[in-house]
Amino acid sequence: MHQEADYQSRRQQKTTRRRMLLVTGAGLSALVLSSFNPLQLSAQTPKRALSSNDILAIQQLNSNYFYTLDALKEGNNAVKWADTFTPDGIFSLTSADGTVIVQATGTQELINTYNAFPDVQTTRHWNNNLLIEPDFGGAKGGCYVIAMNIQSIPATIVRTGLYEDRLVKFGENWKFQARTLILDPNVPAPTMNYIQ
Fold first, then answer.
1. d(CA 115, CA 71)
2. Tens-of-pLDDT digits for all 196 residues of the chain?
3. Residue 152: CA atoms inside 13 Å, Cβ hemisphere, count?
4. What angle do CA 51, 178, 79 make, to 5 degrees?
5. Closest Cα to residue 175, out of 92, 83, 112?
6. Do 65 and 176 contact (CB within 8 A), yes or no?
7. What is d(CA 186, CA 69) in angstroms, rounded to the nearest whole number?
8. Confidence (pTM)
9. What DSSP line would sit under the chain, residue for residue?
C-alpha cells in the first residue's frame, strides 16, 4: 500500500513537471511569436516587390530606349533617348575587361553622346532575356544585345554585349539611373564622333 502511494506520488510529480514544461514551452513560443512581426520586418527592408504595372513600364522603357537609339521615333531621338534616363542618369560603355570607353552623366552629356554614335542610322539593336528584379530604392536588371549593320546585305553583326541597369521610379515613370553596356570579349568599340 505504501509502495502504491509512493508510485502515485512520483507519477503526479512527473505529470506536474510535464505540464510545467508544456506551459513554459508554450509561453516561450508565444513570446517569440509575439515579438516577430512580419510587417515590422518588411518595413525595415527597403526592397519592395515590383507590381505587374512596374514590370510592364520597365519593359516599355527598355523598348523606348532601343527605338530611340535606332532613330526610329519621330522628333529628336537624341533628346528622347536621353529622356529614358533620370536627369542625372549615367550611361557607360565598357570593354569586357572593364575599361571605360564612354561615360556620360546628365541629360546634356547623354544627348552629346547619342549624337556622337557613328552608326545610329545604320544600326538595329536586338535585345533578349530582359531581367527585372526589385532592388533597394528601385529595380535592377539588364539584357543581352546584338547590334546589326542593316546597310550590309544580309545584315551583319557589329557588336554584342550585355546591359546592366539600375532603375528608379521618377515621378510616375521608370527611368534608368545608370545603364552600362559591357561589350563581349573581342568586340571592337565604336569610334565616337564627338563634334568639338
1. 11
2. 555 556 566 656 655 555 554 444 544 444 333 444 444 433 444 678 899 999 999 999 999 999 999 999 999 999 999 999 999 999 999 999 999 999 999 999 999 999 998 888 899 999 999 999 999 989 999 999 999 999 999 999 999 999 999 999 988 999 999 999 999 998 887 777 655 3
3. 10
4. 95
5. 83
6. yes
7. 23
8. 0.73
9. -HHHHHHHHHHHHHHHHHHHHHHHHHHHHHHHHHH--HHHHHHH----PPPHHHHHHHHHHHHHHHHHHTT-SSS-HHHHHHTTEEEEEEEEEE-TT--EEEEEESHHHHHHHHHH-TTGGGEEEEEEEEEEEEETTEEEEEEEEEEEESSSSS-EEEEEEEEEEEEEEETTEEEEEEEEEEEPTTPPPP------
Q: Which amino acid is at 27?
A: G
Q: What's the first-to-final CA gap in the chain, in angstroms? A: 112
The residue written with cell numbers 520597365 in the block is 58
Q: Is beta strand 138-149 parallel, antiparallel or unpaired with respect to 156-170?
A: antiparallel
